[in-house]
Design goal:
This protein is an alpha/beta fold. Helix content is 21%, strand content 25%. InterPro entries: FAD/NAD-bd_sf (IPR036188), FAD/NAD-binding_dom (IPR023753), Ferredoxin-NADP_redctase_2 (IPR050097).
Length: 337
Amino acid sequence: MDDGSVGSNVYDVIVVGGAAAGLSAALYTARQGLKTLVLTKDIGGQMLLTDEIQNYPGFPSISGFDLANKLKEHAEAYGVEFVYDELVGIEESSECGGLCFKLKTPYAEYHALSVVLAFGKTPRDLGVPGEQEFKGRGVSYCSVCDGPLFKSKNVVVVGVGDQGLDAVNYLANLCSTIYYVFGHDRPIGSQDLVEEVLRLPNIRPVPNSKVVELVGNKKLERVVVENTKTKERTEIPADGIFIEIGYVAKTDFLKGFLQLNEKKEIVVDKEGRTSRQGVFAAGDVTDTPYKQAVISAGQGSTAALSAYNYVQRIKGKPASSADWRSLKPKQNVELKL
């Protein structure tokens, strides 16, 4: 792993994020010959939340996990480096012998001439007692990722819209009993999906309710729910809880460094440029109104070309508007794309 020291370890670009936007950006910068690092907590991001993607061009049906890994293999083949860590701070720096950016994680610091922020959004927390304590010990935010760990067990799903319904539908084939907690008389979402979920034999709807506490010893054992009409509280014995209530842009550490909108999304122009020169952004973390994997991939490629042109300018070299070259991969990786 790179130790983050300044000097020869300065990257041309650091891409923050390992899903469609970030991996596409890394592929494009690497193919343009830029020394590229991907800094990410995981590979796939929100794509891991679905076991079947049907609207990514070229793949009539593919799991989010498989698509993410194909994108990663493609980027790796052109020399992209990966570090699995979380960005917690970014600032301008002159430690590189000129203007660059210092990226901080809990464990290291990395330097780059340019940055592409493409870390998407993160699952929204419930914000109830016990949630933080039992993360990874019964509390999950990804039914597709963690569902197999709860095979033949009892679980609770707290859901909003189709996201929650999809989670219930998926878990119904794995878990013994699923208690579906929602805040209305009837689940909210696509009518056909609502009907399908309510017909499942192992589903126990818990309407007009909210989760107020998670209880256990070393792992989750019970979920306390409160009826929003009667205020009556009930304990549901459960081995796990899946929290499917949407996503938020965790960009507070960027406040004052970049322009954010009222949703805390990064404001970008049509070329992926942010309010700070040398910093670009793409994907769901930006203010684009459409949150789709294919759109994120396109934005990642756009931001990458903008980053490339920026690096070329500060190096006194010509810019480019495309990536049409035929290049052989640096690594002997079989790309099944």
